[in-house]
Amino acid sequence: LFNRLLTSEEYVKYLAATKPYFCLELISNKLNSNFLKLFITALIRDKHSIYYYELNNSFNSANTTGKLLNYFFNNIKTSEKEIDKDQTIYRLVGEEVIYQLEKNQQLITKYNQKLERDVDTEENKCPIYISLQFFKLLIENYVSQEIKVSLYVSDYFTWFVKKIIVQIPDNENKDNEKYNHHSLYATTYFHELINEIISLLKNFLSKDYTKNENTLVINDDTIKNIFSELGQILFEIIQQDKIAENFKISIVDKIIWLIRDNQNKESIINTETIDIILNKGTIKKNNNPHYKQDNNYIKEFKKLYTETKNVIILEIENDDFHLDKQIDKLLKEK
Asked: Which of 141, 267, 277, 316 is the most exposed place for a label (fewest CB within 10 A)?
């Protein structure tokens, strides 16, 4: 009877609200394979749940704190082995975020409004913002535990951006009253979400990781996978006619600063990682059948990059990684 109750959405919702840490014991005992999904969904849909409480506390802490986060993050290899492949925590959180971006009409309407207030006042109760913090902590724990961040995990960032773009009205580029086209900053909450996603990916690469006071080197595949996400997201934004030109420039600007800030870290900024950015996030290795250079897209990127240089003074000291040269080289190779 109790096992059957664990398949009841309403009962799990009640448990998640009143006895959330007891739920972790139920998950450990594997009493019902669908319980974890119902539990995570209930937590994300309840803005007063421990999910929001612990993640909001984590903004002010260098370490993962709270029983819920510790349960999933303390030993990622072990926790993921113990959970069914379709029930991994990143998949459950990611799919619920996608559901919110597709189906939550109240959220969609609100996040298409002009950005007028400090987003900090909104994010602590937003299922999207708070789940981005979850993914941030998850990937940081992958790196600190010296586990490769697979594309299965990082791909969710691209999916989030795709779903956001779908919800942005087609008339964005024409609605001068609602959108400030003279600004290089986000104009709606959805635009700010895109900014937040790109900033998170940038910070993964720029952050210094340590373990037992020793500096960790980020796994090479992890670096490429994160650059792949940045490349795919950049492509999704640039190809959209409904996205304002100035916002596209602001996104390219973020990529330029990522390169500038890390130009002395050869493991991060090199010809291969920049090539991934310029080729829609496709990693060119082992004769990848999906690798297909798109010169029109590279030219569009170059145009936006040129506009970016008119806004900021950019000096990349290492000529090996100078974007102008690498772009021209790619165009000549086609």
From this structure: 267
Cα 31 off chain centre by: 32
pLDDT, residue 272, reads 83
pTM of the model as a whole: 0.87
Cα distances (angstroms) measured from residue 1 to each of 7, 18, 27: 10, 20, 17
- Residues linked to residue 188 through DSSP beta bridges, in sequence order: 114
Pair 5, 31: CB distance under 8 Å: no
Determine the Cα–Cα distance for residues 308 and 97; give it in Å rounded to an integer: 32
Give the pLDDT confidence score for residue 284 in this predicted structure: 66
Greatest C-alpha distance within the chain: 69
CA distances from 89 to 28, 42, 66, 165, 291 (A): 13, 14, 16, 25, 30
* Structure-block tokens of residue 162: 């795709």
The pLDDT of residue 314: 47
Distance between CA atoms of 285 and 310, rounded to whole angstroms? 35
d(CA 317, CA 234): 24
**Residue carrying structure tokens 């050869």:** 266
Reduced to 3 states (helix: H, G, I; strand: E, B; else coil), residue 216 is strand
CA-nearest of 143, 259, 240 to 194 is: 240
Phi/psi at 189 (5° precision)? -65, -35
Q: 3-state class of 179 per DSSP?
A: coil
